[in-house]
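Lab notebook page, bench 4
Experiment: in silico fold of construct C2
Operator: M.H.
Input chain length: 616 residues
Purpose: comparison with the prior construct
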Amino acid sequence: MGIEKTLSSIDVYICEKETDYAIMINGGWGSGKTYFFKNKLIDHLQSAYEKQVIYISLFGLKSVEEILQDISFHVANIIVNERARKKARINSNQNIKSINTSASTKLGFWSKLLRGSISLCPKGEKINSIIADITSGVISFENYIFCFDDFERSTITYSELLGLIDSLAGQTNTKTMIVVNEEYIISRKNAQDYLKFKEKVVGLTINFENEMDEIFENILNGLKLKSNVSQFVQDNKDLIIETFERLESKNIRTLKFALKRFEELCKKIEEHICDKGYSINNRNNFWGIMLKRCINMSIALKDMKMNTNEIKWEEVEKLQEYNCIDKTGFQWELKSASLLDSSIWGAKFIDHYLVKYNFVDDEMFKVVESQMEAFKRRERLQELYILKEWYYCKTDKEIEDNFSVVMGKLESDKYDIDDYDTITDICFELAEKYFNDEEIKQRIKDNMEKNLLTKYEIYNIWGNKILFENKEAREYSFELKRKVLEMIRTKNNEKLQMIAVSIDGLIDRLYEFERIYVDVGNYEEQGFLSKIDTKDLENFLEVADPKDIILFRNFLLRFNRSHNIKRKFPEDMETVKVLLIKINGLLENMDISTIKKSDLIVLKSTLEQIAENEAD
């Protein structure tokens, strides 16, 4: 039963002139029963009826005498305040202390009051006389509405508690309410005794279920979150409530736990995000990821009692991503390890904090930066993502405006070259099916090829990141790659020629040669060793340190295994023969060190392998 229906049922009970029974408000732990009573029901009852509400928590009370003492103190406080107000009106004295009876339940406070160290009574009044009036029956309990909360948490037997409540509700006609988690009591051994006594005392049981959307703002205000976090949570209210409903939870304490942990995570990473220059929009996107995960994981831990030992975090470049939790269970299966995957649901650092209140900074910041970059890219290509599903656009103007943005940015060379595949796929499709204009395709091609002159060296020619929907776009993408490859090969063949000009820095130039060859292939299938003057190579062997000889040998061995020098570059074999002759001469020279001799022997063995074509 929701809040409004619960209030209506309680109103019917309060309005009955004579009742000899109590009513029970039943709900699970964390369902918001106490919150509802203190923040909604007390104000409602005291404003609608000429009665005072006395709220008693039974948690920690050990005897019926303690309950009666607590009741007496509450009633005394109400009377003290009322008499003080009357005297204030007579004496025109407005400076009177007052205590809220529903909030003052600690016996320590009342013991100080009785000892006289705290005085609330007007001059001449005695607290003891008021308590005497209560116990002697001069003051009637019919003027009050009693609420006993935490019934199931009391250490007093249920039969004693129900006996006391029966004496209030049944013998004095006092309106009495019990707030309880009955499911907990029924699961215990003495459930039958409880049910037997309950039937005599309780005339109506209201099964309380909070409607989270009705109390959400009050919960949020009570948490006093940082202003920007509070606003973000408010903006995502529907998402939060939908998640609780989907996972069949109504636990207010779980909601509070999740939102407080979320705020702490936000504080931890916000400065890091701002320092990196990401936009507020990108930050909010990442906060959305964290909020979803905090809500899901909090429900798992608090309501579904997940065993934290069952959480298995897969290590993949320290990025941890999981499927969302559904009401049938928890799937910790790794979903994606892509640095640019903007559909990430969670991360190990979030779960780790919720379980252990521990930040894993390095891992957290790596996940943050990878996701922020993904959001940043999506933000930069927003108009393309809109056009990708152009048939869902609401108006023609929306399509045309975004297409105009794409063409403007392409013509002014504002896109990264790696975005070209996506642009062609989307815009070629639009040209055919929406604009019916083949000239659009040619405009796109002309602009892309013009831009390539300044960008071709950073184009990922082997990348094919998208699944093309448009056949012509796919074919043009391959054509564009061929043109880029031609430019790169032409440029890099010039570099290859330059590498061989001088013997200085030979080792560095060898690895530059290998990088270029691996990246784009040796377009003209030219050898390398044959381009270096043999006298320079012989001189290199004479003066090189042992480590450079080994580096030279390792390069030749690896390159030969990959490309077979003898088969691909036969012109280099003459140089190999010259080097073997030179090494034999150096080995006969007694002046070189033992270490260098050893390294020359290893180099000689590698050159012999190349010459004998063992790589085949």
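Observations: Residues 153 and 515 are 73 Å apart (CA to CA). The longest helix spans residues 471-499.
Next step: discuss at group meeting.
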